[in-house]
Amino acid sequence: MSNDVDAGVLQIHRRGLMLVLSSPSGAGKTTISRRLLETETGIEMSVSVTTRKKRPGEVVGRDYRFIDPTEFDILINRRELLEHAKVFGHYYGTPRAPVESALAEGRDVLFDIDWQGTQQLAEKAREDLVSIFILPPSTAELERRLYRRAQDSPEVVASRMARAADEMSHWAEYDYVIINRDIEESVQDVRAILRAERRRRTRQIGLGDFVKGLRAGQ
């Protein structure tokens, strides 16, 4: 009987999920994403296309694919993007094919996108989506983090702060909300959510037939 049960277990496979982390700039989603990729197997980062210029330290094909606006428009017209949005004057989008391939093969895909992109993913593939919104502990702390990372001019920081209130107003559209007071604790919270969502019944393909086999005495 043991061998029969083992054979049944092998017939069960899991469909991957799309894990979205969103937050206002500086709240910690990028850091949490990197830590998650370092500590969890079976999950990969979705590589977006963007029309903005490459920043120092970014790697083409790992952080983004950098394309011109004309090529971006072609991807939209061909419906080859799962989602796209304009953020701070530049366009960002998620290519459809690599994500769909990963999900079918049981691999999870991590997204670092805003609420606009999350809404589009929810419209197209809600059953595959798990969304988490990251909030800062305070507005003052958010501003401090933006200045501390020293990537933007004071004018850009001011623009990001002005935009933050609107971004945070969408928190209720997400499945989970984490207040990022401590980065390590927040990473552990996201890992716990991921592990629980991987066990969701609807993602266990073949589970129904396996249970039928158990009931039949296999």
Model description:
- The protein has one domain (2-46, 107-215): P-loop containing nucleotide triphosphate hydrolases (Rossmann fold), CATH 3.40.50.
- It has 218 residues and is α/β, with parallel strands linked by helices.
- It contains 9 helices and 11 strands.
- The protein has a 5-stranded parallel beta sheet, with helices on both faces. A 4-stranded mixed beta sheet has the order 5-4-7-6.
- The radius of gyration is 20 Å and the shape is globular.
- The chain has helices at residues 2-10, 29-39, 69-77, 96-104, 115-125, 139-148, 154-168, 183-198, 207-215; strands at 13-14, 18-22, 43-45, 48-50, 64-66, 81-87, 90-95, 108-112, 129-135, 176-179, 204-205.
- The longest helix is centred in the C-terminal third of the chain and has 16 residues, at 183-198.
Give a concise summary.
This protein is of the alpha/beta class and 218 residues long. It is built from nine helices and eleven strands. The strands form three sheets. It has a five-stranded parallel beta sheet with strand order 3-8-2-9-10, sandwiched between helices.
